[in-house]
């Protein structure tokens, strides 16, 4: 669950697969994590895994299990545009979370209900999902970024009416491989009248000599300019931790150990102009 939150989805899948098969008490959360990765990537099979997780959660009648599964089902339904299914998944468990005064579950489930157009009472907490449900996307984005949750940070930023914020969110989503939400954001940008919208990550990555994503190539360019990680973070409006992860991925894909070597290798591959 921690790796999922950090955007390290390959690691999240690896650990969740172990939990789903080898450790019975972890089976429900493991299935939920596997499902959320697949839903967010649009890779298929997520809803089937959630159905299995729900069977376990429902038998337990414990909010710690039903809450995450219901939230994942609601997210999946919202991404495919099925608002009635969002309400069906989130509504009953949201009522239970309110009864038990469970802020995290109440905030997340209330957020999905609000996204589906189902009115909910103001949460009153400062949980990022509660802030988003109340329309405070900027404050929520800051909170998610501070918590090290890149997908949620991008999702909150995408709720901005400003095309520049949406473009920043889109770059982050493409970097994560979050195709379903990225597709929705592209649609929003087209609706706002933007003509030049970045292409999806698969086309960009295939064309990059080192296989860098669009965001990684952006970080590579700033790194080559001599910017430090905090300076890059400030320029891209993300956390230093997020930049640390991007820089590590860039060095790994270029097969080098230092920033200087990375810049030199990028010039060799034609990714940067020679100096």
TrEMBL record:
UniProt key word DNA-binding: yes
Keywords, ordered alphabetically: DNA-binding, Transcription, Transcription regulation
Pfam (any one): GerE
Sample GO molecular function, one term: DNA binding
Record-annotated HTH luxR-type domain positions: 205-270
SMART domains cross-referenced by the UniProt entry: HTH_LUXR
Biological process (GO), any one: regulation of DNA-templated transcription
PROSITE patterns: HTH_LUXR_1, HTH_LUXR_2
Protein known as: LuxR C-terminal-related transcriptional regulator
